[in-house]
Structure formats: C-alpha cells, structure tokens
Amino acid sequence: MTSSSSPGISLKQEGISYIAGADLPALIVNVQRGGPGLGGIQPSQSDYFQATKGGGHGDYHLIVLAPASVQEMADLTIKAFDLSEKYRVPTMLLADGTMGQMMEPVELPEIAPKESEKPWAVRGTKMEREHNIINSLYLKPEILEKTNFERFERYKAIEENEAMYEEYMMDDAEICVVAFGIAARVSKNAVTAARKKGIKVGLIRPITLWPFPKEALKKAADKVKGFISVELSMGQMIEDIKLSTECKKPVELCNRTGGMIPTPEEVLASIEKLAKEAK
Amino acid sequence: MTTQILIAGFGGQGVLFAGKFIAYKGLIENKEVSWLPSYGPEMRGGTANCSIIISDEPVGSPIVSNPDVLIAMNLPSLDKYEKEAKPGSLIFVDSTLIERKVERGDVKAFYIPATKMAMDAGIPTLANMIIVGKVLKETEGLSKDNLEEAMKKVVSAKRIELLDMNIKAIEAGYNY
Amino acid sequence: MVVFEKPKALTDAPLHYCPGCTHGIIHRLVAEAIDELGVEGKTVGVAPVGCAVMAYDYFACDMVEAAHGRAPAVATGLKRAMPENIIFTYQGDGDLASIGMAETVHAATRNENITIIFVNNAIYGMTGGQMAPTSLPGQVTQTSPYGRDTAVQGFPIKVSEMLSALDGPEYIERVAVNNVKNVKNAKKAILKAFKNQVEGKGFSLIEVVSSCPTNWGMTPSKALEWVEEKMIPYYPLGVYKDKSAEKKED
Questions:
Q1: Do B61 and A101 touch (CB under 8 A)?
Q2: Contact list, A71 vs chain B (CB under 8 Å)
Q3: Complete domains list, chain A, with CATH
Q4: Looking at the predicted structure, is the pLDDT value of residue C61 above 90?
Q5: pTM assigned to the model
Q6: CB within 8 Å of chain B, chain A residues 192-251
Q7: CB under 8 Å to A194, separation ≥6 — which residues?
Q8: Could you give the number of structural domains in chain C?
Q9: What ipTM goes with this model?
C-alpha cells in the first residue's frame, strides 16, 4: 500500500503501470488536491481521468473506489485490498482533501486476517519449485497481446460484478444528480433542499468510479429528464455519464475547481435551472 | 436540530483545537458530528478556519458556508464571514483584536475581550477556549456538560496539566 | 571426472549477450557466490533495464524485473518485507548512475542490507552506444561523436568514490574482469558482498569495470586492452569502504 496527494501520485504513475503490467495486487491512496502542476493544497477531484482512464502508460485499468465519508475511508480500504488480491489488479482509493482532513465518528470494522495463496510471489524458491519472475516485459508482441487479452478478461469480470453505487431519492426522480465523494455530500444537501421546494430530484453516487456504475445510469436515463454532474473539476466524470446514458438525456455540469467546493446553494440553483428547462 | 459552527482566525490561535473540542463534546453526547479544517501550508500565521456540525441527523456536507455560530478571532475573519452568517445567527468576536462592531442587524453579536482576559489570567494561549466558554453558554443545544471528558480527547495525555488550564479558560468565558 | 560445471544458480537458458561481452563472466561470479553460500532457495534478484534486462531468465532464484533505475528501491522493499531472504540487484551504469542515482544514493546512505552488483562499461549498451554518465573524457559514442567534451558534457561519475564518502554503506569495492587475476579478485569481492548481507552488515556495492566490444567498436581482446589502458587508470580498482575492517583497526 502506498499513499500520496495528486503531484506525488503523478510521480508514482511509472510504478503503477509496472504493477499493472506485472499483475500485482496493490492499494494506492490518492487524497486529491487541485492541479495541474503543484496546483494548490485544497480538495479537488481533478485526478478522475488519471485514475479511471489509466494514468501511466499502456493498456490497463485500476479499480477505483471513491469514499464519501470517514467511515467509507475505512470500509473501502478493506474492500480495496480484497478486490486487488482477488483480481490481481492494483486498486486506487480516490479520496479528496476533505476526506483526508475531516473528522467524523467512525467504527473500525473487525478485520479477520486473510491468508491468500500467492503461488506467484518471489519469496525464494526454497529449492522446491521453478523460479518465479515478477515482470512486465514481454518483447514478443504476440505474447504481450495475449497477456493484455487475459488481463482484460479479468477487467470484464470486474465490470460485471463489482460496480457499486448509492441511490438517494431516485424512485420518482425526474432529475438525477450524479456526484461522488465530497461532491455527493454537498449534492445530498441540495437534493433535500430541492425536494422541499417540490422538485423531483434524486442522486446517484458512484462508489466505484472504475468500473463505473453504467447500468444504474442507463436505467435512470430512461425515466429522468436530465442529469447534473457535480464535480470538483472542469468536468471529467461527465464524460462517463454521457457514455453510460448514450447521451439519451441532457447532462449539465455543476462544478468548481482549483480547490473550491460547490455549495449546496450552487447545486440547488443548477437543479432549479434544469427543472425549469425540462418543463 | 443542526448547529453549524465556523471558527476562523490566524494559524496558531487554536482555531482547529477549539473546533475539535466542540466536535468531541458532541460525539460524547451522542450527536452526529463532523469537523473539517481548512488552512494553508504554514504552521503559524496564515489563516485557518474550521467547520463543525453538531446534529441529530447524519451530517450531509461537512462544509459550513452559512454558519449558525461564527467565532471570529481576527478582523479578516469577521470581514470575510460576517456576511455569510445565517439570519438570526450568533457571532462571537474577540474584541481585544477586533475593534469594529458587527454591522448586520439580523444577527446577535457577543464581544469578549478574550485575548486580554487570557493574558491577565496568565494563560495567553487560551483566548480561543475563553470564547468557546461563551459559545457554550449562549448557544441553544450546547452546554457546560462533559467538559473534562471532552477535553481529555483533545489534550495529549503527556501534557495533562493543560487540562485544568483549558477548563479554567472555558469557565472564565462562560461567566463573562 | 567433472572438472568444470555451470553454477547451479544459473538456469540453462542461453545468454543473449554479444560475443566478448563480460556480462557472462559477472553472471557466473554472482551465481558462484550464491552457490557457495548455499542461499539460492532464499535469494531474490532484481534485474535492471539495460543489456542485463533479461537476467531474470538466467538466474535460477526468484527474480523481479524493476523499472529503469529503480532496482535499489525494489530491493529495499523486498529486504524489508522479507529480512530473512537474500536480495541482490544487478545493474549497469546507465541504470544505476543516471536515472537510478537517487535510489542508489539513498539505499546506500540508509545502509540497506542488500547487495548491488554494478557493471560499469562506460556506455549505454542496449540502446546502441550512447554516452553514459561513466563515459570517459574524450570517449567517442553515438551521442558524443567528437569525444566526450567535459566542458559541455561534464565529467564521468565515479560511483565508488562518491558513495564511499557517505557514512551509511558497509562495503564498496571496485574490481575488473579483464584478466584472470582481476576475475579472481572480483569473485572474492562479490562473495564478500553477499556474505556481508548474510551477516547482516548492510549495504555492499561491487563496481565491476567491464567492456563493450560492440559499442566501443573493438574486437573483444582489444576491448579488454582498452579496459586496462583507459578504464582502470580513470577508475582505480580497490576497496573504497569497508566499515567492519575500519572498526577492527580502531
């Protein structure tokens, strides 16, 4: 396990690509701050593309988990280790400055230590087996292609089985706010406030950003009039929302960037605007 | 009931510490709480503020942008946050460091010469807790209960002598 | 009667190195040391990027292929996670003295209990003969066609001298493999570097002055002469640091 905040994670991308290429389990925690470059030190979600689309070089994915509370920081850390070991895929806990700094009550779950078989590990042959090699170098293109195909079979299984999300007031929703992490907390306040004003709005909070909860979004697209992506970036997750919903409904962006955080009032204003336009 | 508290001042004035104390007190009293700091890279000087939410409901956004209770430990903080406070909110001002009065008419202001009181009492670093004492007295839903238990959560066991001093400071503010 | 055998710590994979390259000798010396100490079953090697990138196929122990220059960092992780295992890296001058300099210096100053075999042939071999941090003043390479100009490209990095200035490392020695006598010395040094680790003494680095006939544009025998005449005068052989010996003298 390793952890850092955005610029440090960029430095680690070389190693992350190698870990993916060597099919090793690992947990990488990114407590995001504003960028690019040294940027600032306030909370941000602008490493979404880097986390979900690659980051380092080559054909690979990370499993990306997005906690929205201190409790989830703990729970998803455990989940991340389990997923990473199960699929031999590096997993990223994509948090932000608020998750890294805030205090909330948290119940630390009981963790039963799990012994997992790792026949591939390099702990010495004990002269009992052929040597193991941890390696991401495949000079023969047909072999490298094969390893990539094999890895993407695992990615397919992950996409089918591991997508996680939370729905809030979506049953009769006509507008769907999509947000993760701290943006989801802010959005929840806005959704509650909008409901008081009689606007039928709900929230989908992706807990896994990769795999993205495509099915939930696709289903929502059939019944709502539009989406609002609330992000602490110039708009990155919005692309995955458009892809998942096949652009069936308009997707608006409500965002702040550079370390600024949208207020519930700003999100509410976005909801009200879309509600008016949708009529 | 939900109480949103914002404490703001210079780094080094104990803004984050005061906030932690209030949050822990809420936790001990079985409330839903959150504590979120915001500060620059420097340990002293610079600006610091922290958001504390004490609620009967699970806390949504932990960011306090429109406080029910504002504690201003210096002038820039009062200038910046006075206009953000909710109508009917309480604003606590360290009147040793801030000469001006609260301008809004729809809030209730309290002026405590906390820095001077702290100096006079020989506890110059505890102006923050003197104001906290006043906040505990004036704010609905807060009280003087569980002071020692909450203080033990934020004062290092190695420096337990600070416990009495902090409680003394809270008492001084409470009785002001 | 068997008079000559391949070390057990080498696999049967045929080496890919150029004719006259000394990597084969150095691989053998490392494998002999592992055999003599009887530690193959608990040894994990870290291969570099460079000519020796495929060393993971040649050593019979468990192997990790590191990113360029990162071998000392990977070795640090392996050793700290498995202190009972024997961990070595095998790196060239481009890998260790250029992109991996930070990892090397910090592993040395922390006195990580690992063994580093550093092969210095004064050039980037695998990529086609570009100037390395260790290329000699005036040396002609692909990227210094008029010879290394120290006013423009600076001076070669003397890794052993530099690291021995640190208080951290246990053992630093420079050896060569250009003749039988030097090979025997190299063998002794490499064995000691592994033994130090077994005894928990700390960071041991053996710099092996080596040749690159292909990229130097020389026959193998001419290249060995060049090692004697040009390389060794610039990179003097000998023990640069031996903390345990220093302690005994005190």
A1: no
A2: none
A3: 2-105+135-161 (3.40.50.970), 165-278 (3.40.50.920)
A4: yes
A5: 0.90
A6: 192
A7: A201, A268, A271, A272, A275
A8: 1
A9: 0.88
